[in-house]
């Protein structure tokens, strides 16, 4: 599978990433098969969040990671906004994923300016990420969200290693800031750019190939599916 550089991290990442959101909808057996098959086909970016099934997706992915951890970049997320609670959440994610570290840890669903202010406060979750990085629990700090104007402010304020946003040709017209400002700014700052919702929540399913080709024609590192 083709790979691209993840910004300043210099990591080589497969252009298709595997997301864990929908793993809660299938059996553990099928989830384990799917993650293994993805790795077998050359994929190397696996992303999940503790909110997905209240940890269920992390547990399913962990069953594969216990044997194949070194074959991929593993990412999880933090939806909490306070430093102490975020550290506890990270430790729980590591336990469920059966690993001692994450490659990327996202500040998850930073969708409002208030979210960003809380995350970046003196006792916010971003302080937990900095602490965890020093302790070797995570390697890179990232941010995700659905509102490009909020992400733009965040990456202006903080040197994230990667940013994840909604990138597809449908939302190009609804949210022109994504391609006009967010992507160029992230590229200027040498951040990895990770795309989600290439099919616009299924709206573009009839033209899936064109949808993926469009998103991958942009300077993104990987498109997360699932």
From TrEMBL:
Q: Tell me the domain of life.
A: Bacteria
- Start and end of every NADP-dependent oxidoreductase domain? 16-209
Q: Please give the InterPro entries that the UniProt record associates with this protein.
A: AKR2_Oxidoreductase, NAD(P)_OxRdtase_dom_sf, NADP_OxRdtase_dom
What is this protein identified as? Aldo/keto reductase
Provide the species name.
Answer: Aerophobetes bacterium
């Amino acid at each position: 599978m083709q790979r691209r550089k993840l910004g300043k991290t210099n990591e080589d990442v497969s252009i298709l990433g595997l997301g864990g959101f929908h793993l809660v909808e299938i059996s553990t057996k099928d989830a384990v098969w799917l993650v293994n098959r993805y790795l077998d086909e050359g994929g190397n970016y696996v992303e999940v969040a503790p909110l997905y099934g209240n940890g269920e997706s992390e547990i399913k992915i962990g069953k594969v990671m216990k044997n194949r951890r070194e074959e991929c970049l593993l990412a999880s997320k933090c939806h909490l906004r306070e430093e102490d609670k975020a550290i506890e959440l990270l430790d729980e994610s590591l336990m469920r994923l059966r690993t001692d570290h994450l490659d990327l840890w996202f500040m998850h669903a930073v969708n409002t300016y208030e979210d960003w202010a809380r995350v970046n406060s003196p006792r916010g979750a971003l302080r937990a990420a900095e602490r965890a990085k020093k302790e070797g629990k995570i390697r890179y700090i990232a941010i995700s969200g659905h509102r490009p104007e909020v992400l733009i402010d965040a990456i202006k304020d903080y040197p994230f290693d990667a940013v994840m946003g909604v990138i597809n040709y449908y939302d190009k017209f609804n949210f022109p800031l994504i391609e006009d400002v967010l992507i160029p700014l992230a590229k200027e700052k040498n951040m990895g750019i990770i795309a989600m919702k290439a099919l616009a929540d299924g709206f573009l399913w009839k033209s899936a190939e064109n949808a993926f080709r469009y998103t991958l024609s942009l300077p993104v590192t990987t498109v997360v599916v699932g």
